[in-house]
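Exercise 3.2. Students should predict the tertiary structure of the chain below and write it as structure tokens, then compare their answer with the key that follows.

Predict this chain's 3D structure.
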Amino acid sequence: MLSNVEIKARVDDPVRFLQRAAELSQSEGTVIRQRDTFYPCSRGRLKLRDLMDGSGQLIFYDRPDTDGPKLSRFSISGTSDPAGLQAVLSSALGVKGRVQKERRLFLIGQTRIHLDQVEGLGTFMELEVQMQPQQTLEDGQKVAKGLMEQLGVSRDSLVTGAYMDLILEGQK
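Answer key:
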């Protein structure tokens, strides 16, 4: 399985965050629209990501629900028929829920920085430090913490779970 060290946090000032991310990455970022359908599974999370351009990805990932930089292990399989795969998975497994978002992606070294506008939830950021085989968890956490500081992300704004968890909590 592949792995990364990631954090997720609420963003109170998206304009300021966008400016910092653009400065650090020396780019305006790439806008990506995504619709994730989550399915029940015995451990971790299983989602089908529809990239809304005729392509998609089936993604399984497992990570602790804690704040701060944490290790996420994942597997991804691409598809050119996300609607067909969604129909099969939904029939077989049922649907846990859906998350729709507009994401702006920035790349800094081995890290993917996302500024996400999540329908029904608000604005968030994610850091995904893509781990190299020789790197330790501590190496990835150090990179994530450094970028948190450069981007002005406070520990108070950190989120522990996935967007799907926040949506389900709001429905209770």
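Discussion points: The longest helix spans residues 137-151. The helical segments are 14-25, 82-93, 137-151, 163-171.
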